[in-house]
Design a protein that fits this description.
It is a single chain. By secondary structure, the protein is an alpha+beta fold. It has a single domain, classed as OB fold (Dihydrolipoamide Acetyltransferase, E2P). The chain contains five helices and ten strands. The strands form two sheets. The chain has a five-stranded mixed β-sheet. It has a five-stranded mixed β-sheet with strand order 3-6-7-5-4. About 4% of the residues have low confidence.
Length: 187
């Protein structure tokens, strides 16, 4: 960079931006190779997470007041909301995976996922935080059959442990390709 007394401030900002971008590009590959990053949430007694590459955003529970019910839909298909002018289908994930409707509460959140250029809202009981696990935290010894309910097991891609809890990575690929998930109609 040049001296600030002789350089225009916009040029300095541009140089600073370039310097920051070059550092980010160098650091990013190292992080992505050694860490798994996702949003952790609760589903009944289960601690689950969805990888951030599938997540567009997380919405608060107040938006559920604006849901439009869809006639002849299965119980887990809550309806549609308008999100910035676009229809967003909302699924009660607990009802879909475990057969138990989510109890409405101020901690409920809608995790908006994107798969094959389609957005879907997944209602969960509570979002904990951004979860970051080192690849070393993948635990191949966690007995998924003991840790997660039978109906949930086929949707668990891998398991992590953080010292307190076992976390299951919810497979968005498996969920989005499930025949029942693709047919929300009761007919």
């Amino acid at each position: 960079m040049q001296s600030s007394s002789t350089t225009h401030p916009l040029i300095l900002l541009s140089e600073l931006e370039q310097a920051c971008k070059s550092q980010i590009l160098i650091a990013a590959p190292n992080l992505s190779n050694s860490y798994w990053v996702g949003i952790g949430f609760q589903l009944s007694q289960h601690c689950l997470a969805i990888q951030t590459t599938y997540i567009n955003e997380v919405l608060g529970s107040r938006i559920l007041n604006n849901i439009s019910k869809v006639p002849a839909a299965k119980s887990w298909f809550m309806g549609l909301i308008s999100l910035r002018g676009q229809p967003l289908p909302v699924i009660d994930l607990k009802d879909y995976l475990l057969g138990e409707p989510t109890t409405p509460c101020h901690t409920n959140r809608i995790i908006v996922i994107k798969h094959n250029n389609a957005n879907t809202g997944l209602l969960v009981e509570e979002v904990f935080s951004l979860k970051q696990f080192s690849k070393e935290n993948v635990n191949h010894h966690i007995d998924i059959t003991r840790t997660f309910s039978a109906t949930l097991q086929r949707f668990i891609l891998q398991a992590f442990e953080d010292g307190k809890n076992n976390w299951g990575e919810l497979s968005i690929e498996t969920l989005a390709s499930d025949a029942e998930f693709l047919n929300a109609s009761i007919f």
